[in-house]
Specification:
Structural class: alpha/beta
Number of domains: 1
Strand order of the largest sheet: 1-7-6-2-5-3-4
CATH topology: Glycerol-3-phosphate (1)-acyltransferase
CATH architecture: 3-Layer(aba) Sandwich
Number of helices: 7
CATH class: Alpha Beta
Helix content: 40-55%
């Protein structure tokens, strides 16, 4: 699939993105067929076709990095620069307008996030950010980095929080996937007009952590 995306590099972004969307949808279908791993979504009504936003998503697994391409409208992902160096996959990902950051230089990375993020948002694209910075085990609390909400403050685009329990079925760094149903919960848009990044970050983080606890308790019942 990466080779096909690369061959489409001269074509408009929307064509390459449709292929990426198809790939994500196919992976989810195959995961259900082969691994008996399905998913359910709560809060789809919070996704508006008329208002793109900055997605702040819990990061537990490789699953959500694929699934959100199938769930949300056209989006770009904030990733570490080194991923684009991977043969085929990384080169193909580079054609999908990612915001690739050099984490070794945090100030430069933040400036690039805000500059490129504004550009992508003004193009009508959504931006996917994993504010924890890395995948964490289920049940391990991790603080949100402020970058996504700084972008929201500077751009005045809203934030939309996303919680899920994919790590319970598709653990990080694991080849094995376990049968069951992943719960994805999409929160309401959090407006950013006239608000500071730290306030937005606190609200988004609190919503995600509360949703995570509720998802865990519901699944135990």
């Amino acid at each position: 699939m990466g080779v096909i995306v690369l061959t489409l590099a001269p074509f408009p972004f929307r064509i390459r993105y449709k292929l990426a969307h198809f790939w994500a949808t196919a992976v989810l279908w195959l995961t259900k067929l082969i691994c008996q791993l399905d998913y359910t979504i709560e809060g789809l009504e919070n996704i508006s076709e008329n208002q793109n936003a900055i997605i702040l998503c819990k990061h537990q697994s490789a699953w959500e990095t694929i699934a959100l391409y199938a769930i949300f409208p056209p989006q770009v992902t904030v990733i570490k620069r080194e991923l684009l160096w991977l043969p085929i996959w990384g080169w193909a990902a580079a054609t999908l307008k990612p915001i690739a950051l050099n984490r070794q230089n945090q100030l430069s990375a933040l400036k690039k996030l805000i500059r490129d993020g504004k550009m992508r948002l003004n193009e009508g694209l959504w931006i996917l950010i994993f504010p924890e910075g890395t995948r964490t085990k289920p049940g391990v609390p991790t603080k949100f980095n402020l970058g996504g909400c700084l972008l929201a403050e500077k751009s005045q685009y809203p934030v939309i929080p996303v919680a899920h329990n994919a790590g319970e079925f598709w653990p990080r760094y694991s080849f094995l996937k376990y049968p069951g149903t992943i719960t994805v919960r999409i929160g309401p848009l959090i407006p950013s007009e006239g608000r500071k990044a730290i306030e937005l970050n606190y609200e988004a983080e609190a919503w995600v952590e509360s949703a995570m606890k509720d998802i865990h308790l519901t699944n135990r019942e």
